[in-house]
């Protein structure tokens, strides 16, 4: 009986190892450590979406980019890569050019919000790296994007 009580007591103790709710140290619920790439992804968002054949920023995209700019200005030690992407429709050449316009508009927007241009690179992947593959608007809309990769 004494052994049973000792085992139960040991199991009910929480070790004092500063592991938060995420299991990744003292990071809070799901956001990653302040200034980490994980925090950027979860708290700010790493991608913006575009409409068909467009490189114009939507109001939702601008709101996300405003949060990105604020985070990037706070954590100026990171360099970033802006990846431009397109959906599978159209030629490879057209989609590379469209992805380049998309990444360029994001770079320009971030720079206009105070992010140092020397920290930013951009690259177009066109339709070469889809996140969703199907012949439907639900997939195409996910692939028309620009992604900010924190390096």
Automatic annotation (TrEMBL):
The keyword Lipoprotein applies. Keywords: Cell cycle, Cell division, Cell outer membrane, Lipoprotein, Membrane, Palmitate, Signal. GO terms for biological process: cell division. It is found in: Cell outer membrane. SUPFAM superfamilies: OmpA-like (SSF103088). Residues 37-151 form the OmpA-like domain. Gene3D superfamilies: OmpA-like domain. Pfam families: OmpA (PF00691). One of its GO terms (cellular component) is cell outer membrane. Signal peptide: none annotated. Part of the Tol-Pal system, which plays a role in outer membrane invagination during cell division and is important for maintaining outer membrane integrity. Belongs to the Pal lipoprotein family. NCBIfam families: Pal_lipo. The Tol-Pal system is composed of five core proteins: the inner membrane proteins TolA, TolQ and TolR, the periplasmic protein TolB and the outer membrane protein Pal. They form a network linking the inner and outer membranes and the peptidoglycan layer. This is Peptidoglycan-associated protein. It comes from Devosia epidermidihirudinis. The gene is pal.
């Amino acid at each position: 009986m004494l052994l049973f009580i000792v085992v139960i007591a040991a199991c009910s103790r929480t070790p004092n190892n500063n592991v938060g709710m995420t299991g990744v140290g003292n990071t809070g619920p799901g956001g990653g450590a302040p200034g980490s790439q994980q925090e950027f992804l979860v708290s700010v968002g790493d991608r913006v979406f575009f409409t068909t054949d467009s490189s114009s920023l939507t109001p939702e995209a601008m709101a996300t980019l405003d949060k990105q700019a604020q985070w990037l200005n706070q954590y100026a030690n990171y360099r970033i890569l802006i990846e431009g992407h397109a959906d599978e429709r159209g030629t490879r050449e057209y989609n590379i050019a469209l992805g380049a316009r998309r990444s360029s508009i994001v770079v320009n927007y971030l720079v206009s919000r105070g992010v140092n241009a020397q920290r930013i690179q951009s690259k177009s992947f066109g339709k070469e790296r889809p996140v969703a593959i199907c012949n439907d608007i639900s997939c195409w809309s996910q692939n028309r994007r620009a992604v900010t990769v924190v390096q």
